[in-house]
TrEMBL record, chain A:
Family note: Belongs to the binding-protein-dependent transport system permease family.
Sorted UniProt keywords: Cell membrane, Membrane, Transmembrane, Transmembrane helix, Transport
Protein name from the UniProt record: Carbohydrate ABC transporter permease
Classification via SUPFAM superfamilies: MetI-like
Domain ABC transmembrane type-1 stretches: 88-279
TrEMBL record, chain B:
Pfam families according to UniProt: BPD_transp_1
Region (Disordered): 1-29
Source lineage: Bacteria, Bacillati, Actinomycetota, Actinomycetes, Kitasatosporales
Name of the featured protein: Sugar ABC transporter permease
Family: Belongs to the binding-protein-dependent transport system permease family.
Alphabetical UniProt keywords: Cell membrane, Membrane, Transmembrane, Transmembrane helix, Transport
Length: 294, 325
């Protein structure tokens, strides 16, 4: 695999024996890295390869390890025979709006919790952390009954409200950590000059906290894009299904159209894959926030 | 952003609390008004979170102690009763689900931590290609669980799944349907789970490894310790706080296990892979028994809460300066 290339040999000449041992260790490292890469990549390859196979080839015995008659028919059937275009639209609307709301509410809350003298701050932060880890199944029934009462089942606004609230806690954690790392001086100058609090946040904090806002935004978006349980509970009619619900309920009673499912899956994963690969440093920093002591 | 910033340690020691407290003896008017401002900034988000999470959690708890009647045009709660819990606690389904979820969590998390740490040690030694490996590792983390479940259900298919094709010669040419047996279905589900979540553990472990103080390792090396000893005696103990956080994150997630069994096994065969979350959801939305369903959900939440307390304990000992309220 071209992505895992052995780094150039160490330039410093070393005595013969240690160098041979170092070379041995280097080979073991590269082999191990290749195994890891295969472990991760093979299932993904299998999904993409299957997406390009005809219905007959999907169930071929022995399996086609490489699609011999590649076809895009599965993509057509995902969008025409099934309602996949609609699912993408639903997921996009809900995820984008919820993410923007998370950032809008989260930035001000995180600023207050990072900088302003809010009482019970540690308790608030701990509560938020626990909520962000709480099993969502405990929320399913009350949210369902609540949304049913106000007529928001099978709607965008119900799911957007739920996703905004569910993703705020973690976003506040990430944003607060970034805000704490910003030097206070510039804000104090702005305060002295009589800038309003909102203006201080918008024009002083936001530009400096861009990487953190990015990280929080990516996490919220990925969480909305991949969430299943609440979407299944609140929005299960065909016109309002998001991508995960659509893909879980794809197919008939007796057959599972894997080719179509994986064509749809590949399309659904493309935006996330691009987002994660392009902004992988922001994602890694978000993943490790809270896990690594500073 | 440089790599150093990317693995950016949260600045938990720089708590504003300390600064605030040192001045709190003489609270000026400005401080009081900024306290109001703090709540003005924080309360919209906090109220929203409370309305959509804390309120439903409390409501769910009330439901679990009530008779819930759902009708066409609404629902009503009546009476205070322990009936739901007595139904749940004495049912074989719940007893099986709690044992299954607990054992499944323990096994998958142990495997993930060992494998994730091993992968992190490999990644640490890579130089030029580390960025690419990190990118690759992020894909399983970011994949929609439902999609990975469909992917593995295709791999495990008892007729044309690729695993069957590989294994059936060992079985005298007979088809092998791993999702057909209780134990093999559980193991198959664990493999799918490990594939998706080990990269997360590896990334966290790698961040921990990179942050380790180099001089201690260097000192051990000068003292003549070999790589093996250095790992077990020096680096692993230093890495333990990071790993314990990863463990607790994973435990909490694993107790909510839902998407994977819903799609991959439907909880079957029989009820052998039915997690607490899946059982609770089915009782509520397939059987429309909201009272007992809420009791199952409450029992899940209770277990998670216990895990949270453990988490808090570990977490507090790590960020001593943060929790002073």
């Amino acid at each position: 695999m071209s992505t895992v290339t052995a780094p150039a040999a160490t330039p410093a000449p070393a005595p013969a024996r240690p160098r041979r041992r170092a070379d041995g260790a280097r080979i073991i490292t590269v082999v191990a890295a290749l195994l890891v890469a295969l472990f991760v990549a093979l299932p993904l390859y299998w999904m993409v390869a299957t997406a390009f196979k005809s219905t007959g080839d999907v169930a071929a015995d022995p399996p086609q390890y490489f699609p011999t008659h590649p076809t895009t028919a599965n993509f057509g059937s995902a969008f025409h025979q099934y309602n996949f275009g609609r699912y993408i639209e639903n997921s996009a609307v809900v995820s984008v709006i919820a993410t923007l709301l998370v950032l809008g509410f989260g930035i001000f809350a995180a600023y207050a919790l990072a900088r302003l003298p809010v009482r019970g701050k540690a308790g608030v932060m701990m509560t938020l952390l626990m909520i962000s880890l709480f099993p969502t199944v405990a929320l399913a029934a009350p949210l369902y009954l609540l949304m049913r009462d106000i007529g928001w089942l099978n709607s965008y606004q119900g799911l957007i409200l739920a996703y905004t609230a569910l993703n705020l806690p973690f976003a506040i954690w990430i944003l607060r950590n970034y805000f704490l790392a910003i030097p206070k001086e510039m804000e104090e100058v702005a305060w002295m000059d009589g800038a309003s609090p909102v203006r201080t946040v918008v024009s002083i904090i936001l530009p400096q906290a861009k990487p953190g806002i990015f990280t929080a935004g990516i996490f919220a978006f990925v969480a909305c894009w991949t969430e299943f349980l609440i979407a299944l509970t609140l929005d299960n009619d065909d016109a309002h299904r998001t991508i995960p619900v659509g893909i879980a309920l794809f197919g008939g009673q007796f057959t599972t159209p894997y080719g179509t499912i994986f064509a749809a899956s590949a399309v659904a994963m493309l935006p996330i894959a691009i987002l994660v690969l392009v902004f992988r440093k922001a994602v890694v920093s978000g993943l490790t926030a809270g896990a690594v002591k500073g | 952003m440089s790599a150093d910033q990317a693995i950016h340690p949260p600045d938990l020691d720089n708590s504003p609390k300390k600064r605030g407290r040192s001045r709190s003896g003489t609270r000026s008017g400005l401080e009081r008004s900024s306290a109001r401002l703090g709540w003005a900034f924080a309360s919209p988000a906090l109220l929203l979170v409370a309305a959509v999470t804390i309120f439903p959690i409390v409501f769910s708890l009330i439901m679990s102690f009530s008779n819930v009647n759902v009708t066409g045009d609404g629902f009503s709660l009546s009476g205070f009763t322990g009936h739901n819990f007595s139904i749940v606690f004495t049912s074989d389904l719940w007893q099986h689900a709690i044992v299954f979820t607990t054992l499944y969590t323990i096994v998958t998390v142990i495997v993930e931590i060992i494998l994730g740490t091993a992968i992190a040690l490999v990644l640490e030694r890579l130089t030029a290609s580390r960025g690419w490996m990190m990118a690759l590792l992020l894909l399983p983390w970011a994949i929609i669980t439902v999609i990975s479940a469909q992917l593995w259900s295709y791999v495990y298919n008892g007729v044309y799944g690729v695993l069957n094709v590989v294994l059936s010669p060992l079985n005298g040419g007979h088809d092998i349907n791993v999702l057909g047996g209780s134990f093999s279905a559980t193991a198959a589900m664990a493999v799918a789970d490990i594939w998706k979540t080990t990269p997360f553990v590896a990334i966290i472990a790698l961040a921990g490894l990179v942050m380790l103080p180099g001089d201690i390792v260097e000192a051990a090396r000068i003292d003549g310790a070999n790589a093996w000893t250095i790992f077990w005696r020096v680096r692993l103990p230093l890495l333990r706080p990071t790993l314990s956080i990863a463990v607790l994150f994973r435990i909490l997630q694993a107790f909510g296990l839902f998407d994977l069994p819903y799609v991959l096994t439907g909880g079957g065969p029989g009820d052998s892979t039915e997690s607490l979350a899946l059982l609770g959801w089915k009782v509520m939305f397939n059987d429309l028994k909201f009272g007992p369903g809420a009791a199952v959900a409450a029992s899940t939440a209770g277990i998670v809460l216990i895990a949270c307390l453990v988490f808090l304990k570990v977490f507090r000992s790590q960020v001593g300066s943060e929790e002073t309220a």
